[in-house]
Automatic annotation (TrEMBL):
<feature type="region of interest" description="Disordered">
    <location>
        <begin position="229"/>
        <end position="249"/>
    </location>
</feature>
<feature type="compositionally biased region" description="Low complexity">
    <location>
        <begin position="240"/>
        <end position="249"/>
    </location>
</feature>
<protein>
    <recommendedName>
        <fullName>CobQ/CobB/MinD/ParA nucleotide binding domain-containing protein</fullName>
    </recommendedName>
</protein>
<dbReference type="InterPro" id="IPR017746">
    <property type="entry name" value="Cellulose_synthase_operon_BcsQ"/>
</dbReference>
<dbReference type="Pfam" id="PF06564">
    <property type="entry name" value="CBP_BcsQ"/>
</dbReference>
<dbReference type="InterPro" id="IPR027417">
    <property type="entry name" value="P-loop_NTPase"/>
</dbReference>
Amino acid sequence: MSLILFHSPKGGVGSSFLAAQLAIQLAQRGHQVTAIDFTFQGALKLNFAMLPSQSLANMSRTPGDVTVVNGVELLNGYDLAQERDFREALAAGHAGLFNPEHITIADVASGDREMKSILYDRCDLHICTLMPEAAALATLPLVVPGTATVALRKTAFVLNAIDDTRRLSRDSNRFVRQLLGDALIANVRRDEAVNEALARFEPLTKAAASSPIHGDVARLAVAVEQRLGRAPEAAEDAGDGAPRGTTKR
Ligand SMILES: Nc1ncnc2c1ncn2[C@@H]1O[C@H](COP(=O)(O)OP(=O)(O)OP(=O)(O)O)[C@@H](O)[C@H]1O
Ligand SMILES: [Mg+2]
């Protein structure tokens, strides 16, 4: 089992978008992947081209239904995570809550400090997404309060929505690279096609097949495999991206 926690102290930086893109990319590279949305707003599914009206299967304490899109098993973890005894079981490290065969990606809201802290202790890799803007970079000391950013061993950073035509973006990139060194595992460029694809409820691969983001996310996936010590598996056809409905696992 490998658990990847997506959480940033600053909201709106593209954490859910990258959680979804990484999940899809890892599935295309042959891994078995589960993505769990622990947020109230439930926006992860939109990044899989699902409609707001389409609901995800709920996470449960025992293996149950899952919704499969783009080769990724998607679950809503928010409802279960509101139960105190579930959070306690997670914090106690109870086995069996996550599929042992899968890479599990957890999308946690920036404001949900408790869930972040529980999953941070359990995860193999924490990915903190940043954007090249003051409000996001100013939260760097809050990634794990009390621990210097450069001393974080489990955390990898992604600088998202970079626009090299803008000076602030170039300067932020230089600053973050100098500060974080190898902990900055990927840069992802800004592309308006991301929002256009969301607005059309289309997968980014279909709405913008030539977007530079695909190459950036592929590099992110390779960096994640290296951090997890997992080689790519035999690649699978992840299909056309349409939701496959709810299946038993
Ligand atoms: N690389 C990118 N290029 C262009 N737009 C992007 C990029 N990454 C994210 N976005 C857009 O930024 C917005 C915020 O993204 P997202 O919802 O993934 O952020 P978040 O950190 O999960 O936010 P929240 O705190 O609300 O959960 C969305 O409209 C998304 O489409
Ligand atoms: Mg989000």
